[in-house]
Write a structure and sequence with these properties.
The chain is mainly alpha-helical.
């Protein structure tokens, strides 16, 4: 059991810290990528009628599960990196890579989500008084949120890297001054002279 506990805990702690904004960025990105409304269709008078409802519970569970996988992947890498000498750097690099990977298809996901929700995220047409957000507005704000959280994750990882580098440079900088040895002990009780 002790083999599972790493000696260095800093990479794992850093991975857990960076996994928080990464989880929320993945949650928004996954929502843009796979969320779709539950659609009911029926025929009346020869016409196809359609209504849109909130996504099913299974779709919501899938969104949360995929976002959790992204965060847990980073924490797992942090655990493995805890056994490495330069594990903090590995954790930072993987956090940056995962964060940037969320933005690769973000524009496409934003457009596809807007297409899947023709009445907007609130499921009401823009011309009704019940509409709270315009079509495409929620998607644009969600994509901006993902980008912002990705920037925070990358910035925190870079700051952690700079701190680790500065501490390593400080530890290894300059010649070391030898510490003088302690004076030899004569043994017995110390003697004092009276004047």
């Amino acid at each position: 059991m002790r083999r599972l506990l790493p000696k260095r805990k800093a990479p794992l702690a850093l991975a857990g810290f960076l996994a928080i904004p990464l989880f929320f960025a993945a949650l928004m990105a996954t929502s843009l990528a796979i969320e779709k409304p539950h659609v009911y269709e029926w025929r009346r008078g020869g016409r196809l009628l359609r209504t849109y409802h909130d996504a099913t519970g299974a779709t919501e569970a899938k969104i949360w599960g995929l976002a959790l996988v992204v965060a847990l992947a980073l924490v797992t890498v942090g655990w493995f990196a805890s056994f490495l000498r330069y594990g903090l750097y590995v954790t930072c690099v993987v956090a940056i890579a995962e964060a940037l990977a969320l933005t690769v298809r973000l524009g496409t996901w934003e457009r596809h989500h807007t297409t899947r929700f023709p009445n907007g995220e609130d499921l009401y047409a823009d011309n009704t008084t019940s509409s709270l957000v315009n079509r495409g507005q929620w998607e644009h704000e969600a994509a901006d949120t993902v980008r912002s959280l990705v920037h925070y994750t990358v910035a925190l990882a870079l700051i952690a890297t700079v701190i680790v580098v500065l501490l390593a440079v400080r530890r290894n900088r300059g010649p070391r001054i030898p510490v003088p040895p302690p004076p030899p002990q004569t043994g017995g009780v110390p003697t004092t002279t009276r004047l």
